[in-house]
């Protein structure tokens, strides 16, 4: 499925100007049909999968309890 720049900006939650800039920098692959750029939606799937993976890793890390320091001395 192909998206326009406006649809891609909404899909990625980015401003349209930034999407255009990324296309011109060749960081986003796009086709130009003579009138507008068309962006293949599935090229972002790996990116979103990696984001989810890192969110889960961060969640697991934040849930891990802080180990008690064995060098702490009792003040009694």
Percentage of residues in DSSP E strands: 5-15%
Regions with pLDDT < 50 over 5+ consecutive residues? Answer: none
Q: What is the multimeric organization of the chains shown?
A: single chain
- The CATH first-level class comes to Mainly Alpha
Q: How many beta-strand segments?
A: 3
Task: Predict the CATH topology.
Answer: Arc Repressor Mutant, subunit A
Round the mean pLDDT to the nearest integer and report it. 89
Q: Specify the overall morphology.
A: rod-shaped
Query: How far do the termini sit from each other?
Result: 69 Å
Task: Give the neighbour order of strands across the main sheet.
Answer: 1-3-2
Structure description:
With 76 residues, the protein is α+β, with helices and mostly antiparallel strands. Helix content is 47%, strand content 12%. It has helices at 5-12, 16-24, 45-63; strands at residues 2-3, 30-32, 37-40. The termini are far apart. The mean pLDDT is 89.
What's the layout of helices and strands?
Layout: E1 2-3, H1 5-12, H2 16-24, E2 30-32, E3 37-40, H3 45-63
Antiparallel strand pairs: 1-3, 2-3
Q: What are the key terms here?
A:
single chain, alpha+beta, Arc Repressor Mutant, subunit A, three-stranded antiparallel β-sheet, 3 helices, rod-shaped, Helix-turn-helix domain-containing protein, DNA binding
Quick rundown:
The chain has 76 residues and is α+β, with helices and mostly antiparallel strands. It contains three helices and three strands, in the order E-H-H-E-E-H. The longest helix is centred in the C-terminal third of the chain and has 19 residues, at 45-63.
